[in-house]
């Protein structure tokens, strides 16, 4: 396991997501990642679901690593009528994109930190307007395979495929880890995390920067 900074406990990301690993490096240069074995069942409250699942992921990994600071995260996409998790098939991915195109929806991403019996949970909400993707663009995007491991079947960072027309809120929350939220959680449990704006200038203007 990678050691933390001198005198700091090791940090573990409870996720197999390469996007979350990349984002977390802005806060903590050295950490390990473990995939949590958690069934992602959604209820009716997207905020409660995201917070519950983020904590469940962190807790299940922390159970086997009592000395580590463990960070879990979960993203839920909803449009006020239904939730959109990770698509189970290419057909479902295409259906999600058709349902979301040209319309606003909300992305909730929660971050949970567990260490030595202490727990911290926070979340971020972003409002996203998907572009007016035509059926051919959706078919090509789905055929690329990129929508398959993403809530809502799209990635805001896929800049060669302009899926997002407008964003209000934290960009990193839509990618999969709200950095200011995670930063506050890590610091609340005693880890000297770096401010994300040092690595990502866009974080300077993030509405989460001055959050609770």
Overall SS class: alpha/beta
Estimate the helix proportion, in percent.
25-40%
> How many E strands?
7
Count of DSSP H/I helices? 6
Please tell me the total number of domains.
1
Roughly how many Å is the radius of gyration?
A: 17 Å
CATH class, named: Alpha Beta
Overall average residue pLDDT: 92
Low-confidence stretches: none
**Which CATH-level-2 architecture?**
Alpha-Beta Complex
Do you know the CATH topology?
Answer: Maf protein
End-to-end separation? 32 Å
Summarize the main sheet.
Answer: 7 strands, mixed
Strand content: 15-25%
Series of secondary-structure elements, N-terminal to C-terminal: EHEHEEHEEHEHH
The gross shape turns out to be globular
Q: How would you characterize this protein structure?
A:
It is a single chain. The chain is an alpha/beta fold. It has one domain (11-197): Maf protein. Helix content is 28%, strand content 23%. The protein contains six helices and seven strands; from the N terminus they run E-H-E-H-E-E-H-E-E-H-E-H-H. The protein has helices spanning 18-24, 46-62, 90-100, 135-143, 171-175, 179-188, and strands at residues 11-14, 32-33, 69-78, 83-84, 104-115, 118-130, 164-168. Strands 1, 2, 3, 4, 5, 6 and 7 form a seven-stranded mixed β-sheet that branches. A hairpin with a 4-residue loop joins strand 3 and strand 4. Helix 3 (90-100) runs antiparallel to helix 4. It is globular, with a radius of gyration of 17 Å. The mean pLDDT is 92.
